[in-house]
Specification:
By secondary structure, the protein is mainly α. It has helices spanning 2-12, 16-107, 109-122, 134-193, 217-308, 310-323, 335-395. The protein is 85% helix and 0% strand. Residues 1-10 have low confidence and may be disordered.
Amino acid sequence: SSLSFQAVVSTQSTGPNDWQNSNIVMSTTAVRQQGGSLEIRQAARKLRNDTDIQTNWGQKDNTTRLYDRMIDVTAWKDKLEQTIADTDVEISALTNHKERCETALANMNTPFEVVHDNLATRSIRVAIDLVDDEVHQELNKEVEVIDGIKQKLKQKVDEAFRQLCSLQDAYNAMCDDLADKMHSLDVDQQCHGLTNQSANIGFHKNATRIKEGIVKPDSWDSHSNYNTQRAMAEMRASTSLREAINNMIEQTSNDLEAQRLRTEYAFRKRIHEVQMAKDELEWQQRNTKRELDVLSDDIRGLKQAISDKDKPLEVAETRSENRTYRPNVELCRDKPHDGIIAERNDLLNTVSTLIDQHNIAEDAHTQLRQTLNRLDEDWSIKSNSLELEERCMTKRQKLTLVSHNV
């Protein structure tokens, strides 16, 4: 057992050098590790400082980026708001012009009705007065002008409706874009206001994920630019359309007024012509009646003259007959005999001539009576035509009350 104890002591014990070396190693190791720890501490402090600075700057940079982003979003928000306001004004203006077109189109009903009433009224003219005159031609032109104006107005109403739809689409797109901008601005303002001391911060699972539908800045900028450019293009088209509507209303109003004046000039000219023809007929009626009265007196005179020849003829024939009873040689063809026979023949010729003249006068009287009847009939026709023309002119007074250029 003593041997065993000796062996154990021999195994655990070291020499003086080993002990000294061990102390040196321990001291050297401690010094080396202390030096390494100093470097680590310095590196840790530097890393901590660097990471603090980097973290602070990173947070500051992103705060600045958020601020810059809010500036960009605000700029687009302001532009969208201004463009929306301009578009709203243009929608109101174009709506007003569309309503003007609709009012002008409704006002065309009066000229349409008046002109067709004129045509219907003048169709009542009879006989020779039912003529395709200048008034009829101008009325037909007026119908064409009115139909053309109605078509143009309706076309502009349709164009204005389609343009209003386009403006409204652009307006709605900008409103949606503005709503998104406002929401985005709220989000970025909240994010910009976050600090390390904020209460509503925390870790979030997969916070840096890329959501579906995310776009690049160029696409974001292009979207709002497209919306505003589209709206401005629609406003330019709307402005052009409003100018076209103004010009068209003014032009069609001038065309309608010019045609109205041409038609009414033709009416006045025709009324003058009919009045002149009626006056001429009345003049001829008076002359014909006067001539009929004179001719009737002459016919009565001729009848009386024929009747007045009966007695002289009876005298002549009685003389001639009585002298045939002279006796014997007294039955002589003497001068009285020849004279009586000549007188009788003259009387017969005179009566025949008077009868011929009477017949001629009767024929003339009949012709004059027929002419007077025709004059009376034509006078009635002219009176009817004149009344119809004046009725048309009275009806056309409504045209001066039509407010076409509203």
